[in-house]
Every structure is written in C-alpha cells, then in structure tokens.
Amino acid sequence: MAAPKILIPFYSRTGTVEALALAVAEGARSAGAEVRLRRAREVVSPEIIASVPGWKQSAEAMNAKYEAPTADDAVWADGVIFGTPTRFGSMTSELKAYIDSLGGLWAEGKLNGKAGSAFAGSSQMHGGNESTVISLWNPLAHLGFIIVPTGYADGVMFAGAGSPYGASVISGHPPAGPSEAEIAVARFQGRRVTQVAAKLMAAA
Q: If 0-12 CB within 10 Å is exposed, 13-18 middle and 19+ buried, where does residue 84 land?
C-alpha cells in the first residue's frame, strides 16, 4: 500500500506554531507518511503588518521556506492536520481564508473520508487552545473529514501538555515555546493521524 500523504497547513507569526507543525510532521514521517508543510498567507494590509515589530520579517522568512496551501494540496492528501494560533478563542483569519477556499472541493465531495485533525497555540494558559481546536472541527465536519483527536491514546498525553482534542503550545511573553512535552504531543498527533489515514486507505 502507498504511504499515507499528510498535509499540514498552518499559520504562524512568531514561529511558535511553526515549531509545533514541524513536530507534527516529524511524527507523521515516523509513521511512514509523505508530508507537505504549507504556511497560510497574510490577509491583512501591508500597513497593518508593518505596524507590528518583526511581523514582516518573520512572514517573509517563513514564506520563503513554505509554499502557500492550495486546494490541490488538500486533494493530494489522505489526512490534513490544521495548525493555528488562537484569535479570540478561534482560528486565525489566515487559516480560515484557506479553509474557505476549499468550497469547490466541498461541493464535489473531494474531501469526504479523509482524516482531519487540528492543533493550536496561545500565549497564556486558558488563552483558547482547546476552543480553537474544537472550532476547527466544525469546518472539518462540513468538508467531510473523519475527525481524529489525540485522545489519551499515548503516554505522552499524561505529561500535562496538549489536550485530548489536539496538540497545543502555551508560548508565554515573549514567545518561548514549545516545551519538550508539547513537542512530544505534537509528534504523537502526527503519528496518530497517519495511522488512522492508513487504516482509512486500506478500508476504501
């Protein structure tokens, strides 16, 4: 059987969620997956970006490393793991813009039956990580994904990092994460989604 193909579309401004995405990718590859990492692009004006110290430089550096996610990437994938910082308890507008671009695939049923999952990051405890991951389940359901939470299916889940919904990072001020425990949960999430995607492929 062909290796499962895992797409990780994420948005990261400071690099914290990027680090979590890289750990998810590492876990997926350890389970035999072919991985595509993609960074969602900014949707606000250059003036707003320039008003936040370091944003422009960070975005340019990450955009040079990662292609923007496309609808073709989602069709290619057997599983998709979305990653985002929290914005008032929900996903960023940048990641939402990518998800909204998948409407044509929804209309054609092209994403039905794929594995779907999510991870998140916030700057402080109780900053919205759990609600952000769960808010991503709504579009996953509409698009036809089979939602794959982390659960408590591995011992790393008992180290006080992440949640049964998905990996997460609490970065602090200034950003200083993710911790090794948070990285371990992200690796596990990548492995778990890959394993579920492989089972779905075998059952198709």
A: buried
Cα–Cα distance for residue pair 122/202, rounded to 1 Å:
36
- At residue 57, φ and ψ (nearest 5 deg) are -65, -45
In DSSP notation, 2-36 reads PPPEEEEEE--SSSHHHHHHHHHHHHHHHTT-EEE
pTM over 0.85, yes/no = yes
* Residue that has been written with the tokens 């402080």 in this structure: 124
Helix (H, G, I), strand (E, B) or coil at 135: helix
Beta-carbon contacts of residue 136 (< 8 Å; ≥ 6 apart)? 82, 84, 91, 118, 120
pLDDT of the chain, 204 residues: tens digit per residue: 799 999 999 999 999 999 999 999 999 999 999 999 999 999 999 999 999 999 999 999 999 999 999 999 999 999 999 999 999 999 999 999 999 999 999 999 999 999 999 999 998 888 899 999 999 999 999 999 999 999 999 999 998 888 999 999 998 877 777 999 999 999 999 999 999 999 999 998
Please state the φ and ψ torsions of residue 150, each to the nearest 5 degrees.
-70, -35
Q: Is domain 5-203 annotated with CATH 2.40.33.20?
A: no
